[in-house]
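Please go through the sequence and fold tokens given here and tell me how the chain folds. Record follows.
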Amino acid sequence: MKKKLLLIEDDAVFAQVLQNSLQKRGLECKHLNSLQQLEQLNEKDAFDYVVLDLYFDGDSGLTVLPQIRQNYPRASILVLTGYASIATTVQSIKLGADNYLPKPANASQIMAALTQAPMTNSTHDLGQEMIEQSGAELAGQPREQPSEPDVLSVDRLQWEHIQSVLAHHQGNISATARALGMHRRTLQRKLSKKPKNK
């Protein structure tokens, strides 16, 4: 039996290319091009995977993420976005996503993200426990000096702050622009130019 994937993406061209590629990999795909179309799904529909775009025109995919998690508790949920940031990654995971991937992403990357272990607190705790155990086993050996931490550029810090405010306003660009005291177009321009760390 084919595994079923729900693709919620407003970019029609990207969605069609991705859908074709995933179908060639043996998946049965259903595409929705708006968040409102979620209401039209039959309760009997069961999906193994859900790929959710983060930003729609004036809406945020995060607003429907808890509903998707509730409706499909066993599905692997991937948030896909062209506006990746630490703030939205954390918020996505807290709201029920299993993974988060920045665009552009191809079908191989998306399938890898959907099938790998979810980024949850229990996974983090297990990793931390393993680190502590290995540290105890290595007692008595000289420790490696920690490397100097990466320092973020001013542009990157500004971009991360904007992402944080955007997440606080649930992806609403207009409300975020008002909160930051800038024009909506200026905000969109800043969001589209993700600066490097240094």
